[in-house]
Amino acid sequence: MRVLHRLKTTSSRAAALVALCAIVFTLVPSHAAADSPTYTVRAGDTLTSIALRYNTTVAVLKQLNGLGASDLIQVGQVLKLPESPDTPVSASAGSGAAYYIVQPGDSLYRIALRYGTTARDLSDYNGIANPDLISVGQALAIPGNSSVVKPGLIIDPPIVGQGSTLEIQVARPDVVAVTGKFDGKTIRFTQAGGYLYALEGISRCAKLGKFPLTLTETDASGKTLTETATITVAATNFPIDRVNLPPDKLSILTDTKLINSEAVQLAEIVNQYTPTRLWSGAFRQPVYGRITEFFGTRRSYNGGPVGACGHEGTDFGMPEGTPIYAPARGRVVFAGLTQVRGNMTVIDHGVGVFSAYYHQTEILVKVGQMVEPGMLIGQVGTTGLSTGPHLHWSMWANGEYVDPLEWTQRIFP
């Protein structure tokens, strides 16, 4: 009887051990025959919850499992998982979809350079809210991208539209200074964390085609290296607007001497260069309302020919007196009355980036004053060459007018 009791006890313990092992194995990823880790989907699982559990992103899971754009998974479905953190890079079998395991000392920028993409594309592709927060062992999906022209040189975007802002980044060991020319025009570079960058505005009436970029890089010992690349400028499909002006307004428009004089005065202001970037993050809009004229719109005045170069900024139709707020940090460099642009404020945001606000009924800042995003700077009006109350918002990058709304949708640099 004692022997029988002992056998029964041993058998019960073995059964309990088997049951415990079964529970444990449902809580960890299973492994395929080729040592490729997998996970079996359970009730309540989502791609997001699985990605969080295994320190990866939804993009990686989609790449590894050929899910395309779909977020749908089913209970019992077996999903491939990234390799262990000891594997720096891998690819899902037969798909060509690459992912990278974050290593000690990595940053999103360095990973982007390594795989021919940009930090912004990498963070957007993986749904990373804060690009500064990645962890060792985390698996990141690598998007296809052609912004990296060669190792250490990013041109973003590689094909740039008229009126857009071009960003050029140089990351070379020991490089301390970079000078450059784009289609013969000088571009200025600013030092950032681990790289140098330049922001170049593409004219809203720029010629189309391929144009040369020449960079001269100087290292810590004083040695220089010159390299070249090509940037493609593509057409932007700007709308056409037909504007009727009263005789007194039209007389200002046809006064070419006045128009040119004011344009020269403004160009002198926005071609200054403050080597420090004063803003951070994306710009906000100075007002929020109906857009009555988009940047780059080609205009015909009183039935005349359509202008070759379009509208300098973005117009918002707003009641007179509507508050205008600073879209980003900067220093006021002009605040006064002009004949064409009316009461105008110009803000220097640093590294060749400026913004301006035309036709105000009242200016509420002074030259030399620092403004912060969201600070009240003026009120909407209809001064100068204007047919009704509205705010005209212009922006420049390296002396060229650029689309202000792009700056609300992208982060430079």
Provide mean pLDDT, rounded. 83
Note poorly predicted spans. 1-34, 85-97
CATH class of the largest domain: Mainly Beta
In the CATH hierarchy, what is the superfamily of the largest domain? Glucose Permease (Domain IIA)
Structural class: alpha+beta
**What CATH architecture of the largest domain do you see?**
Distorted Sandwich
Give the overall shape, derived from the CA principal axes: globular
Rg over CA atoms, rounded to whole Å, is 29 Å
Q: Output the CATH topology of the largest domain.
A: Glucose Permease (Domain IIA)
Kindly estimate the percentage of residues that lie in beta strands according to DSSP: 25-35%
Proportion of residues in helical segments = 10-25%
Number of domains: 3
With helices defined by DSSP (H or I, 4 residues minimum), what is the helix count? 8
What does the largest sheet look like? 8 strands, antiparallel
Please count the beta strands (DSSP E, at least 2 residues each): 29
Distance between the first and last residues' Cα: 82 Å
Q: In a few lines, what is going on in this structure?
A:
The protein has 413 residues and is α+β, with helices and mostly antiparallel strands. The chain has helices spanning 2-26, 47-53, 58-65, 108-114, 119-126, 247-253, 256-270, 406-409; strands at 30-31, 37-40, 78-80, 89-91, 98-101, 139-141, 148-150, 153-156, 159-161, 165-170, 175-182, 185-188, 190-192, 195-201, 209-219, 224-234, 240-243, 290-293, 298-301, 314-317, 323-325, 330-338, 342-350, 353-360, 362-363, 370-371, 376-379, 390-397, 400-402.
